[in-house]
Amino acid sequence: MEGLRRRQLLVLRRAGLARWRLEGRQGREGRGVRRRPAAAGARPLTGTVQPGARRALAAGLPDFPWDRLEPAKATAARHPGGIVDLSIGTPVDPVPAAIRAALTAASDAPGYPLTAGTPELRAAIRAWVTRWCAPGGDGFGVLPTIGSKELVAWLPTLLGLGPGDTVVIPPVCYPTYEVGVQLSGATVVRADALTSLGPARVRLVWVNSPSNPTGRVLPPAHLRKVVDWARERGAVVASDECYLPLPWEAEPVSILSVCDGRFDNVLAVHSLSKRSNLAGYRAGFVAGDPALVDELLAVRKHAGMIVPAPVQAAMVAALGDEEHVGLQRDRYAARRAVLRAAFEGAGFTVEHSEAGLYLWLTRDEDSWDTVAWLAERGILTAPGAFYGPAGGRHVRAALTADDERVTEAAKRLAEA
Ligand SMILES: Cc1ncc(COP(=O)(O)O)c(C=O)c1O
């Protein structure tokens, strides 16, 4: 443990992070009030928080986006042929039998599981990351997570970020990046081009390729620039790669593959939800800078953020098999082809969408108008406005409806 701390400190010092943590602590101790700027979509904080008063976290968070979709959902549900729900990327196909068998076989689990993961799971994650993400080196750390959403939501906090720190997220992105920044009290900035950021004290940069919601794939040269930029400033790059196993017209790469075998300041976040239909199991992991991963482990051990033992066993089975991933990819490819042609036939433009689980669509009008137009036809999509102001003229259609519903959507679009 002592060796671990020394190694962590060395790396932190090298990356300029030790200073940051100290500053963060000092900044917070001196302040009884943690006011945060209201980010886009956040409810304004009402009234003045008295020094020493409880800071109600929920009050500063945006409304849960999908709650705002309820009226459109009700409209779509009234369609005589039933709703085709393309609004959420939740898998609908079965959990592969071998994964279910592994879960069942491990279900007699009376003791506490390891936060770091069983040796079998750690080996399975390492092997998978080496094969698919980091062929050039094995000096990365690994840690299982309870799905990846919780890590996304808590990473700024787990890294010790707070008021005065800046986190960069993509202009149009998965809403939980912003929520995570809000939970920590840091400031969020939406930017693609890091060069435009000026003197902000950037501590963390999120990238997401293939992107939710746009399906955009970042080329290796772009990822490398982000890594170089972050290392020069002692910032961390977190790359959310949960859609990496779903390439269509572009070949997404892991950020770990552009690091020349050196993983300092870099974390790759992965999920088995989409790859293996395990959204209901809550199975993910993070891999990258061993000192940062050790730091996350140290906090998560105290905080009880542990993947249940049967799920750990199921993850070993899932990561050891690529056949089911190929089958699932084929299902999505077929649905994507049908939906893409149908939306284009109905006058939509498909942008990006070169990989991942979504079609990013526009009729060049406000995204809520498009949601309403589709809901009248019994098709529910997510307005691009959920993902940032720059998404306000798009909607996102998920490929996660079964074949019958996808055919039904195509039929309705052909009649539109
Ligand atoms: C970009 C992105 N990251 C992370 C997640 C979280 O996935 P999970 O918590 O199921 O691993 C999602 C879920 O849709 C996502 O789209």
UniProtKB/TrEMBL annotation:
Region (Disordered) residue spans: 26-47
A single GO molecular function term of this UniProt record: transaminase activity
Protein species of origin: Dactylosporangium aurantiacum
Similarity-based family: Belongs to the class-I pyridoxal-phosphate-dependent aminotransferase family.
InterPro entries tied to this protein: Aminotransferase_I/II_large, LL-DAP_aminotransferase, NHTrfase_class1_PyrdxlP-BS, OxyQ, PyrdxlP-dep_Trfase, PyrdxlP-dep_Trfase_major, PyrdxlP-dep_Trfase_small
Lineage, uppermost ranks: Bacteria, Bacillati, Actinomycetota, Actinomycetes, Micromonosporales
Domain Aminotransferase class I/classII large: 83-413
Identification of the protein by name: Aminotransferase
Leader peptide range in chain numbering: none
